[in-house]
Amino acid sequence: MSETIYQLDNITQRYAGKTVLHLPELSLEGPAIVGLIGPNGSGKSTLMRILGFLQAPTSGEVRYRGRPARPFDPAVRFAVTMLPQEPFLMHRTVAANIAYGLKLRGNGGDLEARIAEALDLVGLDPAAFARRQWYQLSGGEAQRVALAARLALTPRVLLMDEPTARVDEASSQRIQAAALEARRERGTTLVIASHDWEWLYSICDTVLCLFRGQLIGGAKGNLIRGPWEVDDRGSYLRRLNGGQLFRVPPPPADEAVAFLAPEAVALNPLEAGPTGHAHLKGILTRLALEPNHRQLTATIMVGDLALSARLTVERVAEQQLYPGRTVTLSYTPASIRWIGMVDG
Ligand code: ADP
Ligand code: MG
What we know:
Helix content: 10-25%
CATH superfamily of the largest domain: P-loop containing nucleotide triphosphate hydrolases
Distance between the termini: 42 Å
Order of helices and strands: EEEHEEHEHHHHEHEHEEEEEEEEEEEHEE
CATH topology of the largest domain: Rossmann fold
Bound molecules: adenosine-5'-diphosphate, magnesium ion
CATH architecture of the largest domain: 3-Layer(aba) Sandwich
Shape: globular
Strand content: 25-35%
């Protein structure tokens, strides 16, 4: 059964007078796996801490399952848990680390079984790992133990901040498997922040893009930075590596970044695209199937700029859009949105 887990209204977070997060409205349904993507400094960890009730925003309201909630509220204390970017293990055994949270909650009874179950979930053999000390773990194993300690608490919401940033491929796959299983078997809602969009897209039901503290849409968007130039007809553009011109409407400020939604990009295997559009010639370098199996995200290289387009499976088949093909990419400059600084 689906329900609204979070509802955020008019959230802002300011540090030293600078706004780093501004979300007029956001609602998250669960159970689901929600991805949060964005470059460094875009506000992902700040939003994660607010969703995890580790900090209250400077202003605005967070509702959890229909009720306004704040850090330390009993309603969220045991239900929402966060795996921070650099999780801390106590200087004790793996088993003691996992038992700690369970004991805090008064789950004393079947400790051994709960510890073994949690280790199994993250792919660590309880017989080999439960008695190990914290210093006898690789980076990836330590991350999985920290995850096991959270999963043992069977939270309704599990927030993971860059869970795969510093782990190897095998650990990354186990973390992915554990996330999928928690959602499937326990109805857990996961919110995962990452800048690894391929990894995120492979497991998330929805992905939110954060940029300069603002939500900019639900798919990997195209962000194009200046310098912006004006041609002799007075229209604005960015000169791309290789000489092609990326045309834009007049930018509101020099530092504004152009956002072009992947849905607004059309691909055509022919020389000419639709009239009235801006055109770029590029090479289709890859196609990635989205989890719903109906849409594909295409990556097109134009000079050294990688642009994304979102296409249906049917369209890709019809137009024979396979990687390696030269394509014409079209968009209307009017579909570009400008993203400035929140305080700008
Ligand atoms: P991300 O996780 O996407 O890299 P963060 O949420 O960590 O982004 O940071 C967003 C912005 O807020 C950055 O400019 C960062 O420097 C600033 N920031 C984050 N935490 C603090 C803090 N405790 N005090 C001051 N500035 C902060
Ligand atoms: Mg961060």
